[in-house]
Each structure stands twice: as structure tokens, then as C-alpha cells.
Design brief:
The protein is of the alpha+beta class. It is about 15% helix and about 30% strand. The chain has a four-stranded antiparallel sheet with strand order 3-8-5-6, with no helix packed on it. A two-stranded antiparallel sheet has the order 1-2. The chain is globular and about 45 Å long.
Length: about 140
């Protein structure tokens, strides 16, 4: 089981939020690194999750989405998804050119392209938030 957390980038008045923890500070640094100077960004915050897994355990293929909306039948994907490796351990992340408009049917049915990224300390992946991705633990 894992825990999920959300941090808005700005408060209700548009003032940048101050980080309360080291992870929140990292979220802000990643945001600034990825979107600094982009006045058109619709990024409103960052989600992170924590799970305890063995190095050879995978993470099933999934689409990042607003789980609260999904629970009532509405699908909303983030603008972008990221993966940030803290160590060199674990399985690689595989990202496919596959999405779903309704979280039931995959489009395309079979992906024709993908990106495989092995863990490396401080490696940071940034990709469209609607893309299917997972971790292949068996390749760790």
C-alpha cells in the first residue's frame, strides 16, 4: 500500500507556497526546473506518492489521473507526469504512446512506440500525463 500527497504551487491569492518538508522543497525545485519562465503553464501543483517495495517489484501499467474524479466516472489526466529517481536501484520505467479517453479502452490498442528508462540517481523523466506507464521490476 502507498500514500499519495498533493502540494499546490500557489495559494488562493497566487502567492507561491512555502515548502513545509524536504519533499515539498523538491517538488518546488522540480516545478521551477521544468516550467521556469513558462507563463502559459497550467500546472497547479505536484503530487507525489510513497510506497515500500522490494527492488525487483514492479508497478503495474497505469495512467495518472485524478482519482477523486475517476471514482465518479470522470477522467482528468495531469498536464504532465514525472518520475524522479533517487537511487540507481529498481526496475526501469516504460512509457508507451498509449492513452485512454475513458479509462476502459486503450488508444491505440497496441502501442507502437515507447521509452525505457533505467533508474539512475537524479534521473528525471517528464512526459505527457495521459500516457500509459509502469515499472518492470523483473528487469531490475
Amino acid at each position: 500500500a502507498g500514500l499519495s500527497f498533493w502540494m499546490p504551487i500557489h495559494d488562493g491569492d497566487g502567492v507561491p507556497k512555502k515548502p513545509r518538508t524536504a519533499i515539498e522543497a523538491a517538488v518546488l525545485l522540480i516545478y521551477k526546473s521544468d516550467f521556469s519562465g513558462n507563463k502559459e503553464t497550467r500546472i497547479s501543483g505536484g503530487e507525489w506518492w510513497v510506497q515500500h517495495r522490494m527492488g525487483t517489484e514492479g508497478i503495474g501499467f497505469h495512467l495518472d489521473k485524478d482519482e477523486g474524479l475517476a471514482s465518479v466516472g470522470s477522467i482528468k489526466y495531469p498536464e504532465v507526469s514525472t518520475v524522479t529517481y533517487l537511487t540507481d536501484a529498481g526496475g526501469p520505467t516504460l512509457i508507451f504512446n498509449q492513452t485512454s479517453t475513458d479509462a476502459i479502452r486503450d488508444e491505440p490498442v497496441l502501442p507502437s512506440d515507447g521509452c525505457l528508462a533505467y533508474p539512475k540517481r537524479n534521473r528525471h523523466l517528464l512526459f505527457r500525463g495521459c500516457l500509459q506507464h509502469g515499472v518492470l521490476g523483473e528487469l531490475a
